[in-house]
Specification:
The complex is a heterodimer. Helix content of chain A is 67%, strand content 0%. By secondary structure, chain A is an all-alpha fold. Chain A is extended and about 95 Å long. Chain A starts with 14 loop residues before the first helix and ends with a helix. The model of chain A has no long low-confidence stretch (mean pLDDT 92). In chain B, helix 3 links the parallel strand 3 and strand 4. In chain B, helix 1 crosses helix 5 and helix 3 runs parallel beside helix 4. The longest helix of chain B is centred in the N-terminal third of the chain and has 13 residues. Chain B is globular. The mean pLDDT of chain B is 92. Classes of the chains: A mainly alpha, B alpha/beta.
């Protein structure tokens, strides 16, 4: 048998070419290793510098936090010569700003006021303002946050322009900043924005507003008829959160809004501000809603507990969908003795699936 | 009085340290939960001030550990962030005595410490 040669001598590289290729590979690896080493050394140097700066700043920050104004002259927080000199370095300045921001977020009272005083004394707002001109969104957002946390109200116009910015995260930061600085009054950007407010941003704004006085029902009434659906939804949440019963009649028309999310939020809102007229309005729209909205309506009718609601709810026990049957049963149990009577009087209460549905609703109530 | 402070935020721990030292207390600092637990036995604090969210062990674990120790009942103040109501309630169930919400004033903390130690 002859062995078949599977290779041609022409394919075997010549020794000197092989050596050149190996040398090139070793050279590349060496270069990569050198770059990595240089990078690591530079990074270590930078971290050491940051550490030194942080140690330097500890004293400055503690002096600032516990500074007591003697009232005789404009308050000036004393700085060491080393700190004043280091301020020329952008890295040191940014570290100082970061520490001031961190401190301001954690402290209140005189301590917080002193941190703002130092921020103003050193004119650090112009560096934060410069960030608003950056093309990178995260730098813009950072600048907005710095100005808001350090209470730079005189620069609100620059921030306000960004409440309708193209980039969502810049918008969110600007909107939160305005509310932080001006409370409810700051929400006037809702008059003009044509971009949606995300669910998360709505939660953030509600959380910020929870601690602030000065709610303006008149403005909220305008937002209830906004062309921006997310603004409407947010306004409904505000009405619910603050139990603005006086806006009940302005909320009712939202039950007929074409967007299901608006209708859903309206139902949830009405649970917090219902009147005698609420039940009829809900019952009127019930048939045209999707299952989630119907379940929400049943819940609200149970919470309102009017006698006529019991009749409507017991009729819903005959609904095709078992979830709706369960929703109706839960609502009737919410109504107490009156609702319980409807359950007991339901002709099919002993039959499947009603017996199990009623049992589940009762168990949930007692749990 | 000897006070153990457990807080992972450098600026806060330094601020609390300066303020309470001014009141004449002897302090022991811990930058994470596990460090705080390790120091409780050595330092035998008269009071513990602890953050809730910390690396390695939370403030709740510190409270739990402290309440399991025999001997005197050490008063505990927790530092909570806004929106941590459930955690604060849990801390009280485990045996915390008081809480202060961030952001807070160092002077307010000083008053609360004084009041709790006096009681």
């Amino acid at each position: 048998m002859r062995l078949v040669l599977l290779y041609s001598p022409a394919l075997v590289p010549q020794p000197h070419l092989l050596l050149i290729a190996m040398a090139a590979m070793v050279g590349v690896l060496l270069l990569i290793t050198i770059f990595i080493l240089i990078y690591l050394v530079r990074r270590r140097k930078h971290e050491k510098k940051l550490e030194d700066w942080r140690d330097q700043l500890i004293g400055t920050l503690q002096r600032t936090i516990f500074f007591e104004d003697d009232g005789n002259a404009p308050a000036t927080i004393p700085l060491t010569f080393k700190t004043s000199r280091s301020l020329k370095h952008p890295g040191f300045r940014q570290l100082l700003i970061d520490e001031l921001i961190q401190g301001k977020k954690s402290l209140t009272g005189t301590a917080a006021a002193n941190l703002v005083l130092l921020f103003n004394q050193l004119g650090l707002s112009r560096f934060s303002l410069q960030k608003l001109n950056s093309r990178r969104w995260h730098i813009k957002a950072r600048g907005i946050q710095e100005l808001a946390v350090m209470e730079q109200r005189q620069l609100v116009t620059r921030i306000y322009r960004l409440t309708n910015a193209h980039h969502e995260l810049v918008r969110m930061e600007a909107q939160s900043a305005i509310v932080q600085l001006y409370g409810f009054e700051g929400l006037r950007f809702l008059d003009i924005i044509n971009t949606p407010i995300s669910e998360w941003q709505q939660i953030t704004l509600l959380r910020l507003l929870a601690r602030m006085p000065g709610i303006q029902p008149g403005k909220i009434a305008n937002w209830l008829s906004s062309g921006n659906d997310s603004v409407r939804i947010f306004a409904l949440k505000l009405v619910a959160e603050h139990h603005l019963h006086q806006l009940h009649d302005q909320v009712i028309p939202c039950l007929h809004h074409p967007h299901p999310d608006v209708r859903m939020q309206t139902v949830r809102c009405l649970k917090e501000i219902y009147t005698d007229a609420t039940s009829d309005a809900m019952i009127q729209i019930y048939a045209a809603q999707n299952i989630h909205c119907r379940l929400a309506i049943l819940d609200v009718l149970g919470a309102i507990g009017a006698p006529d609601n019991g009749i409507f709810l017991s009729q819903r026990l005959a609904e095709g969908d078992d979830l709706l049957k369960l929703g109706a049963a839960r609502a009737l149990i919410q109504m107490g003795d009156l609702g319980q009577k409807h359950l007991d009087d339901f002709p099919l209460s002993a039959e499947y699936p009603w017996n199990e549905i009623f049992q589940q609703a009762k168990t949930e109530q007692t749990a | 009085m000897k006070i153990l402070i457990a807080e992972d935020e450098p600026i806060l721990i330094r601020t609390i340290e300066v303020r309470l030292k001014k009141d004449g207390h002897e302090l022991c600092l811990a930058c994470d939960g596990q460090q705080a637990i390790d120091k409780i036995a050595d330092f035998s604090p008269d009071m513990i001030i602890t953050d809730i969210m910390m690396p390695y062990a939370s403030g709740l674990e510190i409270i739990s550990y402290t309440r399991q120790q025999p001997g005197k009942r050490t008063p505990i103040i927790i530092l909570s962030s806004m929106g941590q109501e459930d955690v604060v309630l849990e801390a009280f169930k485990l045996g915390a005595d008081d809480y202060i919400t961030k952001p807070f004033s160092p002077n307010e903390l000083s008053v609360r410490v004084r009041r709790l130690l006096a009681s």
